[in-house]
Design brief:
One of its GO terms (molecular function) is structural constituent of ribosome. Pfam families: Ribosomal_L18. Belongs to the eukaryotic ribosomal protein eL18 family. This protein has helices spanning 2-17, 50-57, 102-115, 118-127, 139-146, 183-191, 199-205; strands at residues 33-34, 40-41, 137-138, 155-163, 175-181, 195-197, 212-215. The chain is of the alpha/beta class. It has a domain at 102-224: Ribosomal Protein L15, Chain: K, domain 2. α3 (102-115) runs antiparallel to α4. 15% of the residues are buried.
Length: 241
């Protein structure tokens, strides 16, 4: 009896001294699903276990972001960056040296700061508008505007291009100041003995804009405005379909 008790105590001590073995994997059970006929189908066997899920979570992480000298901040290595949506929100100045000479802009700006006249402020504002807003003015329309009472002997100031009109064969006495004049219009104006001034010359002749008439082409004369407005099928609509 004593030997039996001694053997049981030794076996129990050996069992306590051994480290615990691995636990059996626990299988994830899915809830039974109901078919469209109302029959409860058994849950399909799932191959993922707790151990497999732990191994899946230990997968390598995606590449980290880098911001070195050779790459852009926030870029991912191996991926191209799309720049087609990059825009600058600040308004840009005049980028056309042909249409807007630097001397004209600087001269008008200096005159507007010195004289503080409304004419110079309007001219300076129109110098820096976009090309779509700088609409051209035809020669016939300019002649028609200068025939209005009070416009005789004054200088026509156009912040844009004076285009040709084949219906005009003779030009009355005019004094023109424009950014650009077409070749045939220039020949007709000079042939009539008139003058074509630049903006720096006009700033010297009339610093405050005395004896001048500001003219501009139709702002909504472009073809794109024919499609804007009310629907072409609505009543009293003149919109082009």
């Amino acid at each position: 009896m004593q030997l039996l008790l001694l053997w049981i105590s030794v076996a129990w001590a050996n069992e306590q001294s051994q480290p615990p073995g691995p636990e059996p994997p626990q299988t994830l059970h899915l809830m039974p699903s109901t078919t469209r006929h109302g029959i409860i189908a058994p849950a399909p066997p799932h191959r993922w276990t707790v151990t497999a899920i732990a191994e899946e979570q230990a997968l390598p992480q995606p590449p980290k972001l880098f911001s070195g000298s050779g790459g852009r901040k926030g870029a991912i290595m191996g991926l191209d960056i799309r720049h087609n949506k990059d825009r600058k929100g600040l308004a840009q100045g005049a980028q056309e040296p042909g249409l807007l000479p630097k001397a004209a802009g600087q001269g008008v700006q200096a005159s507007s700061q010195t004289n503080n006249s409304i004419f110079n402020q309007v001219v300076l504002k129109r110098l820096f508008v976009s090309r779509t807003d700088r609409s051209p003015l035809s020669l016939s329309r300019m002649i028609q505007k200068m025939k209005i009472p009070g416009g005789e002997g004054k200088t026509a100031v156009v912040l844009g291009t004076i285009t040709d009109d084949v219906r005009v064969q003779e030009v009355p006495t005019l004094k023109v100041c424009a950014l650009r004049v077409s070749s045939r219009s220039q020949n007709l104006i000079l042939k009539a003995g008139d003058k074509i001034l630049t903006f720096d010359q006009m700033a010297l002749d009339s610093p405050k804009g005395c004896g001048t008439v500001l003219l501009s082409g139709p702002r909504k004369g472009r073809k794109v405005y024919r499609y804007l407005g009310k629907g072409h099928e609505t009543p009293h609509s003149h919109t082009k379909p």
